[in-house]
Amino acid sequence: MIRIALVVGSTRPGRRGTAVARWVLDTAATHPAVAGGRAVLDLLDVADFQLPLLDEPVPAAFGAYTRPHTRRWAAAVAAFDAFVFVTPEYNHSFPAALKNALDYLYAEWQDKAAGFVGYGTSGGTRAVEQLRQVMGELRIADVPTQVALSMFADFTFTDPTDPTQPGTCTPAPHHADALSRMLEEIIAWSAALAPLRAQAQPLPA
């Protein structure tokens, strides 16, 4: 079974990432691989780990984690074979909280596949563009298909003038098709990378 983490990258109060993640989980549940037990998608919310700005004295590449919050985050990430990153776009990039969470670890990310669900006024496309550069350095194989949700077309708000309202994620049907293709790619690439993960050195306790 391929274990896929749905990583919610925004920690902002009132974030819309929770609504997006709910849509991803509900839609992915009907995917044949998930429904048939070949893959499972579980939530991995950066906000739940309350990571401070990177405070490890040794670079992550050495794997010498000293902080309890780092070890907890490392254990959570290590348990998965692949990732779907849910990210908004902030000022042409992805959230600082997500970058911080990525920078905390190194070996735990490697030889795994990843896809992206972006959202924002431009569909989060520029945030995903920058995330792809980070994936390369972390040795994560990012798949080409992505989901780009528009704040104008793919969300429903009871009061569109209220910027604090999370709203409901109501994507057009073609986004579900893109998510399905992305999951197929993630599952295939993750399976192909399994021998590399098996050869990896055991992670530090």
Automatic annotation (TrEMBL):
The keyword GTP-binding does not apply. Coiled coil: none annotated. InterPro entries: Flavoprotein-like_sf, FMN_Rdtase-like_dom, NAD(P)H-dep_reductase. GO terms for molecular function: oxidoreductase activity. Its EC number is 1.-.-.-. Keywords: Oxidoreductase. It is an enzyme of class 1 (oxidoreductase). Residues 3-152 form the NADPH-dependent FMN reductase-like domain. The keyword Electron transport does not apply. This is NADPH-dependent FMN reductase. It comes from Nonomuraea helvata.
